[in-house]
Amino acid sequence: MKLIGSTTSPYVRRIRLLLTDEPHEFANLDIYGGDRDELRKHNPALKIPMLIDDHQTLFDSRVIARYLSARQGLDPLTWDQENLLTLIDAANDSFVTLLLSKRSGLDVDQDAMFYNLQWERVAKTLSALAERVQDGEFDHWHYPAMCLYCLVDWLEFRDFLQGEGVDVLLAFRDRNRDQPGVEATDPRLS
């Protein structure tokens, strides 16, 4: 198996955590620089992560996670867990949009509908996720917990973590720092 991605992507990191005990190759790409052609060659959606296993290529972290879970004989996610992933992915997507906008020189704090919607989404999802942490829905180290860990740690790494529930989310992250693969996949170490 070969996982293609970058060390700073929270979507790639969640798959790297899932692959902690699986033999695989990891190709770390600079997807906004010199490795863009490599990304174009493998994935028409121009997204990471990608997983190549024999003759099967998978283009999205949720699809890859389903594939790996089936391969590892894990139970499929419940509908509640799928909803948790939807919340995590919504926040992640909005924050990536905000980061790319900032890097493009755009003012993400301007009073514009597009940015207002992103900020509203992240405030609501982070608050809802903090409530779910308090309700014990992330007490076990399963794929949704890995995804939340990657999101929260990435938000702190990118200096985006703010708002209601931050203390709860950081406490969750801190409780899980010793989970298998977490230290080895820390984006600060790349």
How would the blueprint of this fold be written?
Blueprint: E1 2-5, H1 10-18, E2 25-28, H2 36-42, E3 50-53, E4 56-58, H3 61-72, H4 79-103, H5 113-134, H6 143-157, H7 166-175
Parallel strand pairs: 1-2
Antiparallel strand pairs: 1-3, 3-4
Helix pairs in contact: 1-3, 1-6, 4-5, 4-6, 5-7, 6-7
Characterization of this structure:
The protein has 190 residues and is α+β, with helices and mostly antiparallel strands. Helices cover 53% and strands 8% of the residues. The chain has 7 helices and 4 strands, in the order βαβαββααααα. It has helices at residues 10-18, 36-42, 61-72, 79-103, 113-134, 143-157, 166-175; strands at residues 2-5, 25-28, 50-53, 56-58. A 4-stranded mixed beta sheet has the order 2-1-3-4. α5 (113-134) packs across α7. It is globular and about 45 Å long.
